[in-house]
Amino acid sequence: MQVETAQNVTLNEKKQYLRVATISSKTALCYFYIGSENRSIQFLSDSFESGFFADNFESAKKSLKAQSLKEIDVIVIDVPYNERELRELQSILKNRSLHTIPVIYNEHHLKGTDRNDEMIDDVIDLHNWHYDFSTKVNFIRKTKEYDHPVGHLQPKINPGKPVMKRIFDIVVATILLVLMLPLFLIIALFIKMESRGPVFYNSKRAGRGFRVFNFYKFRTMEVNADSKIDSLAHLNQYYSLNGAKFFKINNDPRITRVGRFLRNTSLDELPQLFNVLKGDMSLVGNRPLPLYEASSLTTNEFVERFMAPAGITGLWQIKKRGKSDMSTEERISLDISYARNSNLLYDLWIMARTPKALLQKTDV
């Protein structure tokens, strides 16, 4: 990696605190890294075309004040959490019209109670990140443009009452988990009797704000079913729209007999109640998507569907679940409609209509 010292960027010229690296890489984006871990620096250097380095919050703030850094696409923070310093950094970004730049924190420096969603856009593991960085960065920037509109771009999302929604989610999910514990044990027994492999299936999914989390379900497919997606692509019931992709097929050969029953009765979704308690999901929202699907839906026309929380049930489920004639446009349109109209009363309306949609007629 080639490293150059930035010139004329400090108040004290004798103290050089900012380094600029320009490299050949996979992603034509520019990052601003706050930290000093060589492993993280190497990862970012391998992922971005160019970047700026500051050892700590103080040097980063001086740099932002001293020169124009409008070419920056993302700020990556890799130092111990300090709310005061972070608030001052955000104030500088706002004063310099850089407030739409995504701010991402390395989770190794955060405790569970540290995170402030007003100042941190996302938390990732810089030492174990295997996904498309440019997709995440571009998406977060678009969501921040909706939250802080400029020019013709106006916010379209009704945030509802998130505190009441969260309290409702926790209370209902806790009650359901207690009541359904015997059913969990019975389902686990039948899964193990039919096929070898784990009882639960978990995968990385993208939810609200394109935040990636571990998504839980009862296993309904044979082991390593995800590796067969390419060979079954010709059976996909969704057609592609401007690069947007969903994947679902009729009579999926990867599904086990027990799995087909669980899917048709929606019992495979029960473990997502743990996701609700963790805060990854809500009882009502848009379905969290596998990363290969989510990465195709971050353009301007589709980005709104990620403004809503990920949910166990939602508008798509009560309108079109189990119907094989649904197009990609209809699926996205329903997701965006929920994102624009989301509130607690709307959630209750959807939940009241969910039981009727639980039993589906087709194996999709």
Compile the SSE list and pairings.
Blueprint: E1 3-5, E2 18-22, E3 30-34, H1 38-47, E4 50-54, H2 57-66, E5 74-77, H3 83-95, E6 103-106, E7 122-124, H4 133-147, H5 162-179, H6 181-194, E8 200-206, E9 212-218, H7 257-264, H8 272-278, E10 282-284, E11 289-290, H9 291-294, E12 311-313, H10 315-320, H11 328-341, H12 344-358
Parallel strand pairs: 3-4, 3-5, 5-6, 6-7, 10-12
Antiparallel strand pairs: 1-2, 2-4, 8-9, 8-11
Helix pairs in contact: 2-3, 5-8
Overview of the structural elements:
This protein has helices spanning about 40-45, 55-65, 85-95, 135-145, 160-180, 180-195, 255-265, 270-280, 290-295, 315-320, 330-340, 345-360; strands at about 5, 20, 30-35, 50-55, 75, 105, 120-125, 200-205, 210-220, 280-285, 290, 310-315. The chain has about 375 residues and is an alpha/beta fold. The protein folds into 2 domains: about 5-145, Response regulator (Rossmann fold); about 160-360, no CATH class. The strands form 3 sheets. The protein has a 7-stranded mixed beta sheet. A hairpin with a 5-residue loop joins strand 8 (about 200-205) and strand 9. The longest helix has 18 residues, at about 160-180. The chain is elongated, with a radius of gyration of 23 Å.
Key features?
single chain, three-stranded antiparallel beta sheet, 364 residues, Rossmann fold
Q: Tell me the overall shape.
A: elongated
DSSP helical segment count: 12
**Class based on secondary structure composition and strand pairing:** alpha/beta
Strand content: 5-15%
Strand order of the largest sheet: 1-2-4-3-5-6-7
For the residues shown, what is the average pLDDT?
Answer: 76
How far apart are the termini?
A: 49 Å
Helix content: 25-40%
H and E string: EEEHEHEHEEHHHEEHHEEHEHHH
